[in-house]
Design brief:
118 residues, mainly beta, seven-stranded mixed beta sheet, four-stranded antiparallel beta sheet, 0% helix, globular
């Protein structure tokens, strides 16, 4: 069974950049699409970005298009989320999740906190 561990979150100012990482282990990671989700305080978890197993196709939520880029390295069992031009509304706990593009999700990690100050 795949285990997922996110890292790279932190406290930044509006306009800054961050790169989140997700390390996968314990399963056939490279066979699955990978997603990034986020959950802001008081809100439901929402889809952010997804990438197919080969990395050949990606999908983004409208709110992050042009600012976030998802990528993966199957040789290293890693998924990344490069975030630029961060906004206070991007503040959330970010999770990587294995499963279909946009869901359903079979498993997700413990999350990493991203806080963007104005």
């Amino acid at each position: 069974q795949v285990q997922l561990v996110e890292s790279g979150g932190g406290l930044v100012q509006a306009g800054d950049s961050l790169r989140l990482s997700c390390a996968a282990s314990g399963g056939t990671f490279r066979m699955y699409a990978m997603n990034w989700l986020r959950q802001a305080p008081g809100k439901e978890r929402e889809f952010v970005a997804a990438i197919t197993w080969s990395g050949g196709s990606t999908r983004y939520a409208d709110s992050v298009k042009g600012r976030f880029t998802i990528s993966r390295d199957n040789a290293k069992n890693m998924v990344y989320l490069q975030m630029i031009s961060l906004k206070p509304e991007d503040t959330a706990v970010y999770y990587c999740a294995v499963g279909s593009v946009g869901g359903p999700y079979m498993k997700w990690g413990q999350g990493t906190q991203v806080t963007v100050s104005s």
